[in-house]
Structures are given as structure tokens and as C-alpha cells.
Amino acid sequence: MAELVKATPPEDVSQWKDVMVYCETFQNKLTKAAQEMIGRGRVMADKTKTKLIGVVIGSDISDTAKEAGYYGCDRVIAFQSSAFDMYKSRPFTDNLTAAVKEAKPNILIVPGTHNGRDLAARTAIRVQSGLTADCMEIDVEEDTGILIARRPDYGDSTMSEIRCEKHRPQMATSRPGTFEVPPRDDKRKFKVDLREVKVKKGQIKEEILSFKPRSGEDISIAKVVVAGGLGMGKPEGLKLLEELANELGGVVGVSRPIADLGWISRSHQVGQTGITVRPNLYIAAGISGKPQHMVGMANSKLIVSINTDPDAEMNKNADYVIVDDLYNVIPALIEEIRKRKGAENVEVAPKKKKKA
Ligand SMILES: Cc1cc2nc3c(=O)[nH]c(=O)nc-3n(C[C@H](O)[C@H](O)[C@H](O)COP(=O)(O)OP(=O)(O)OC[C@H]3O[C@@H](n4cnc5c(N)ncnc54)[C@H](O)[C@@H]3O)c2cc1C
Q1: HEC string of the chain?
Q2: What's the pLDDT score for residue 18?
């Protein structure tokens, strides 16, 4: 049985200064989630007048390490081995842990992707620190360097602020879409420390046998999301949403009960247990606005709520509210958009008759 060991804080936390960001890659390219976290790390390093250190792990990453610099890192530690062509829990944890022990960052932030969550949790154990996962906000106190990590708690009824004052590094993850991608600047000055890692035969226990990319659109990067909830009442409602999404060059999103009902795949679910989106336009049709849904779309630039209930929670967070049946509103929107685009002879789903 594993031994229970009490985590020991470092004797002198003032030795731990900089901000470190794990720059996640996929097929040796920085993920968007990594770019977002570099942007957030840059803000925190500037606030505390410290450096931003990026850690990149992959099989062919000399150019990727430079990308991490162009997005905002001052120094990039890159671990390269042909064995790191895909994410593998143990060797990636070994290398990130080594970077932490060497550079002693005050803060370590990791993208809250599937792999990032695995890596952050494992690394927190190895470096004997705490981890605040799935933060909605990550910031730092300028004078103390204390990480301010805020996340929803108790079924999202409260927002907790979690501080880790004794242990280092102070660690947090945030879901993709929580922060904006910073501008890329290929004139930035930074240092890259590329290390070839020798991996002995048998040292890596995991073997990826095959890889199946997720099918369908990636709603996390969509500029327009037309989302439907239980207010649709029937799966046919999704066809209407899809029509509107097509007209607007967007994608369809749903609340969790719609994915639970199996009307559409889980990859369209927005929210706490789904995907975080940050579109320019989020249309919420027949969605009440429960906190578990709101956490996944609250950072949308413009929110339009279509709801029969004028007091729906979603309406309080929306920029525009249309109090009506979505089966009246959406066909009218489609018709108007097509009229403005100059399309002719197009059939729009028949309007639902209003009850007398
Ligand atoms: C641990 C946990 C995690 C969860 N994770 C998620 C998550 O990731 N994402 C998520 O979405 N939920 C999640 N939920 C579920 C969440 O709590 C809500 O139950 C869910 O978001 C409600 O979905 P809804 O808004 O579609 O349905 P409802 O709350 O039933 O709302 C339907 C709305 O449609 C309106 N309406 C009805 N008819 C019409 C019509 N014809 N036209 C226009 N409006 C109409 C109603 O007025 C109402 O506001 C989670 C719950 C838990 C406990």
C-alpha cells in the first residue's frame, strides 16, 4: 500500500520567484489553450516584475519553443525526445517536475485540458504543493506574489478564492477559453534552453496504440455559438438551430440535458462538465441559465437570450433578451438574415402558431 506522506513546504518561499507556464503541445504545435495560459502568465509576471518561464515537451519542438517566446515567455525550457510524440503521463510529469525543482517558480499554471489536468495533479504531488483546478480567474497579488485562484464551488452556488501561502509553486489550471490569446510578436527577445532527453528502453510504460481525432466542429474556438436547451422540447429544434448557425457561420451548442438525452454528441455541450466557449456571439435559445451552464459561456462577447420566461436567469446575463417562443423567433431570424443576404426561394421551418 502507498505510504501517506505529509507535504513539506519549502523553508524559504522567497527563493521561489518567477511564473512558470506549461506550454502544452499537440503534434509538436502549441495548443490554443497553451497560448491563452502564456498570455495569463505574462500578465502575472509583469505584475510581480518577475520572469515568465515556459516549459515545452515534445518530439520536435525547437520551433515550438520559439513560438512560446513569441507569445510572451522570457525563457523556454524545452525537453525533446522522439518518445514524446504524444502526451504520456509519467515522462511528462518527470520533466515538468525537473523544471520546477530547477527553476523554483513562485507560480505554475497549466492549461486545464484533459492532459493538462492529469499532468498538473501529478506534478503537484511530486513537488509537494497544492493545486487549484478549473479556475475561472487566476491573478496574483502584486506586493506578496500570492496567487489568487477563484473557482465555483458547492455545486456552483459560491465562488471560492483559494490561496496557497506556504507551499511552492502555487499551482492552478484553467479550462481552455477562459483567457484570451495574447498577440504573437516575433520581435520579442527570449532564451530557449533545448534539452535532448535520453529515454532508456523500457523506461516509458505507456504506449499509445492508436489515436482517433474528435469528430465534428470544435465549439471551443467558434466565433458564433447557437445553443439550445430543454426549451426546444424536441430534437427537431436542433435542426432549426443548425440552420441559424449555418447562416451566421457558427456552430450548435447545447445545455447538458440535451446531450444527456442523446440528441447530439457530448462535444457540443457547454458548461461546467462540458466545453468552455468564448464566442463573439452566443445565442441561448430555451436555456434557463443555471450556474453550471453559465460558467461555460459567461465570457462570450455578446449574449442573446431567447426565452419564454422573462425572469429566466439567462436573461439577467444577456445583452439582448427576446421573450418569446424560440419556434417563433428563430425562423424569423433566419428569414431576416436570408432576406438581407439577398437569398431567394428559401424555405424556413414553419412558424409555430401562437396559443390564443
Ligand atoms: C455537477 C453538475 C454539472 C453540470 N454540468 C452542466 C453543464 O456542463 N452544462 C449545462 O448546461 N448544465 C449542466 N448541469 C445541469 C444544470 O444544472 C441545469 O440542469 C441545466 O443547465 C438546465 O438546462 P436547460 O437550461 O436546457 O433546461 P431548463 O433549466 O429546464 O430550462 C429550459 C428553459 O427554456 C425555457 N423555455 C421553455 N420553452 C421554451 C420555448 N418554447 N422557447 C423559448 N424558451 C423556452 C424555459 O423558460 C427555461 O428557462 C450540471 C449539473 C450538475 C449537478
Answers
A1: CCCCCCCCCCCCHHHCCCEEEECCEECCEECHHHHHHHHHHHHHHHHCCCCEEEEEEECCCHHHHHHHHHHCCCEEEEEECHHHCCCCHHHHHHHHHHHHHHHCCCEEEEECCHHHHHHHHHHHHHCCCCEECCCCEEEECCCCCCEEEEEEECCCCEEEEECCCCCCCEEEEECCCCCCCCCCCCCCCCEEEEEECCCCCCCCCCCCCCCCCCCCCCHHHCCEEEEECHHHCCCCHHHHHHHHHHHHCCEEEECHHHHHCCCCCHHHEECCCCECCCCCEEEEECCCCCHHHHCCCCCCCEEEEECCCCCCHHHHHCCEEECCCHHHHHHHHHHHHHHHHCCCCCCCCCCCCCCC
A2: 98
CA of 254 to the centre of ligand 1 (A): 9
Which residues lie with the beta carbon below 6 Å from any ligand 1 atom? 155, 229-231, 255-257, 269-274, 286-288, 290, 292-293, 296, 306-309, 312, 325-327
If one residue of 241, 273, 277 were mutated to test the ligand 1 pocket, choosing by the most ligand atoms within 8 A of its CB, it would be: 273
Structural domains in the chain plus CATH codes: 15-196 (3.40.50.620), 219-341 (3.40.50.1220)
> What digits encode the pLDDT tens for the residues 12-39?
888 999 999 999 999 999 999 999 999 9
Q: What is the distance in A from the centroid of ligand 1 to the CA of 205?
A: 42
